[in-house]
Recover the amino acids of this structure.
């Protein structure tokens, strides 16, 4: 029996329960999701996109799902034992895949017209708005998790920023995985930025209990003309956590989007980014850091589609791998016919601290326009011996020198983070991570 | 006695380069080690500072009464051994300030002292920068990154001034320096000299010795010191080259 059959059966048996715990707009796509899943199955190692990450294994356990939307009490206070000053955020919580409205700050702090909160609620209250966007970017025919996520997702988060509205204060969505049993979580995030609008959004993923988790997450981002979005995705979970995230970005003319992935601590992670320049003169800054050890695994796949002229994309992903950790970076930049004056730079640099650590990197550039500036590069290496000795000669002990070199290595990526208080916090988090001092919950406090 | 090297044999990748070095440096002295290319000058300085790529196969080195060869590179530094690198290393992402603060405080920690207070540290930086005319802007830059050849060498002497070593090895510090930079570097070294500190100047040319006056000059050839004399030897080598010393040495072997 094919693996997806379990999920198809689960859905068929619980269809009314799932629909009942969600909203009409989300339910409307389930039949098509089911058809896609039946037709295409789950992603597997036979696909080029999943060559080095065997996600099939991730779907094999008989996961529980909270389809009945039972209240799963989460100790939100635990994640915020101490606060770090410098930046205050507008804070939202997801308990597993359920929006925790009781924990959310009052709405009136946000500019008028902004909708931020439960996707299920928004889809119920504003179906005509949400249906314009929900599921419009996530491609369920592609190998990936769009179909299974759409099939089961019942809630999540929505940020809608109307034309001309600027939200100065960063919004922070903290997801706390907390359950007494092993759990599969399917969450959905929708970000819609109107013309000339601006927002900063920080996702913090976090596991509070030592259970096994599988998370599927779909994020759809619509950035209309002249809009500006900063999107930060910080994962700090633990070894028993598996996460597959797909981010879809559509950028209209003269928009600017920054996406930074930071995987500080995890089990196994697959992040995919599908980003499209639909209008001229836009920018994308897409960056990532992975600091992993033991048996941890991080796979970042990016696809940047230059359909329009005069767009700039910049990618920088850096990994530091210790012990038997493994990393994957597969980046593809497609410059379509007619996308003249494209500027694109893609860089992936990696340090393997041990002989057992493994890094697979595959930069790809496909160009069908003749007046473009594009480059890509990838390296896998060790810490610089010469620098190490130089530092030791000056009295810096070897362990400390290693620490400083690793910090400096990922510091280049942190330097690209626009949000200054987050940058400072990330520097400290990464240092703690390298020193082995990082405890749970730190990630969530990144901005507080 | 600052440094005593006895019958030192060492090499790299299994190839012996130093074949029995004997050398004594007293506190307050400046020694010059000269020699043709490939004579083992850089190997000697690297072995003394504990470069992990080099292996010592025989001999003994005593530094201020301590067994130098038993110490790690960082311990040697903490105890006051410094080397100005022939090719200073660029360390992207590590600022000069952070680098220096860590170096100073690690040394203090090793010696059982409290870390330097931030204001004292900044004062020290200012004072030592002035010594080698190194602009403040360099302190926020990554170590040696984007520094010109002369700036890198001045930065070496700046670090020497910050760390206040008892024994400094200047490895080909004059290479790649124009005359003005050379003067600044030499001036810095001279001002750091004291009756308690010693300097070993390793150089191919006599040029630097016009500015840093040696007390003793040694000629290194094929991994051995083949001649030791006063400062006049450097001038003679400049004039006549190394051939005559080598010939003298080979003749003496019969």
């Amino acid at each position: 029996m094919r693996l997806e059959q379990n999920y198809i059966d689960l859905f068929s048996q619980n269809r009314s329960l799932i629909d009942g715990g969600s909203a009409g707009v989300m339910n409307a796509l389930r039949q098509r999701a089911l058809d896609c899943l039946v037709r295409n199955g789950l992603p597997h190692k036979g696909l080029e996109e999943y060559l080095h990450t065997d996600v099939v294994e991730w779907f094999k356990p008989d996961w529980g799902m909270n389809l009945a939307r039972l209240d799963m009490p989460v100790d939100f206070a635990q994640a915020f034992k101490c606060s770090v000053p410098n930046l205050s955020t507008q804070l939202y919580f997801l308990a597993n895949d359920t929006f925790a409205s009781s924990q959310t700050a009052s709405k009136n702090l946000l500019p008028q017209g902004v909708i931020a909160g439960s996707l299920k609620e928004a889809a119920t209250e504003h179906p005509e708005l949400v249906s314009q966007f929900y599921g419009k970017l996530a491609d369920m025919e592609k190998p990936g998790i769009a179909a299974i996520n759409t099939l089961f997702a019942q809630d999540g988060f929505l940020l809608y920023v109307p034309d001309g509205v600027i939200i100065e204060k960063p919004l922070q969505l903290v997801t706390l995985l907390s359950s007494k049993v092993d759990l599969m979580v399917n969450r959905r995030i929708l970000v819609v930025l109107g013309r000339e609008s601006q927002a900063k959004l920080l996702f913090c993923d976090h596991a509070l209990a030592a259970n096994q988790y599988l998370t599927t997450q779909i994020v759809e981002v619509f950035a209309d003309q002249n809009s500006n979005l900063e999107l930060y995705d910080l994962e700090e979970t633990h070894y028993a956590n598996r996460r597959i995230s797909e981010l879809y970005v559509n950028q209209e003319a003269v928009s600017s989007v920054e996406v930074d992935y930071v995987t500080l601590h995890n089990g196994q992670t697959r992040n995919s980014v599908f980003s499209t320049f639909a209008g001229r003169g836009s920018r994308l800054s897409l960056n990532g850091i992975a600091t992993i050890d033991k048996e941890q695994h991080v796979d970042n796949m990016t696809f940047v589609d230059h359909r329009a002229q005069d767009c700039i994309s910049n990618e920088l992903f850096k990994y530091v791998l210790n012990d038997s950790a493994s990393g994957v970076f597969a980046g593809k930049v497609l410059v379509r016919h007619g996308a003249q004056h494209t500027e694109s730079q893609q860089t992936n640099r990696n340090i393997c601290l041990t002989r057992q650590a493994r890094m697979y990197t595959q930069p790809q550039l496909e160009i069908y326009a003749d007046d473009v500036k594009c480059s890509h590069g990838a390296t896998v290496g060790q810490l610089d011996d010469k620098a190490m000795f130089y530092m030791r000669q000056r009295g810096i002990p070897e362990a400390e020198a290693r620490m400083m070199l690793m910090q400096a290595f990922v510091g280049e990526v942190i330097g690209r983070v626009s949000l200054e208080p987050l940058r400072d916090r990330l520097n400290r988090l990464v240092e703690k991570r390298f020193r082995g001092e990082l405890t749970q919950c730190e990630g969530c406090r990144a901005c507080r | 006695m600052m440094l005593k090297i006895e019958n030192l044999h060492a090499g790299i990748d299994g190839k012996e380069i130093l074949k029995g070095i004997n050398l004594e440096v007293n506190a307050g002295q400046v020694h010059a080690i000269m020699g043709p290319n490939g004579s083992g000058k850089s190997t000697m300085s690297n072995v003394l500072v504990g470069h992990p790529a080099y292996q010592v196969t025989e001999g003994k080195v005593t530094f201020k009464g301590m067994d130098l060869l038993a110490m790690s590179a960082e311990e040697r530094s903490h105890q006051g051994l410094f080397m100005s690198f022939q090719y200073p290393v660029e360390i992207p992402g590590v600022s000069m300030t952070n680098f220096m603060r860590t170096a100073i405080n690690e040394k203090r920690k090793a010696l059982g002292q409290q870390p330097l207070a931030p204001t004292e540290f900044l004062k020290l930086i200012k004072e030592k920068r002035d010594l080698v005319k190194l602009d403040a802007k360099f302190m926020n830059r990554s170590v040696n990154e984007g520094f010109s050849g002369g700036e890198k060498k001045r930065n070496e002497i700046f670090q020497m001034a910050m760390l206040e070593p008892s024994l400094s090895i200047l490895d080909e510090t004059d290479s790649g320096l124009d005359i003005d930079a050379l003067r600044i570097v030499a001036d810095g070294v001279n001002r750091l000299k004291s009756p308690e500190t010693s300097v070993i100047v390793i150089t191919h040319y006599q040029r630097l010795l016009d500015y840093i006056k040696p007390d003793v000059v040694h000629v290194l050839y094929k991994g051995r010191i083949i001649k030791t004399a006063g400062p006049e030897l450097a001038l003679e080598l400049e004039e006549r080259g190394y051939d005559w010393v080598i010939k003298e040495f080979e003749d003496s072997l019969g």
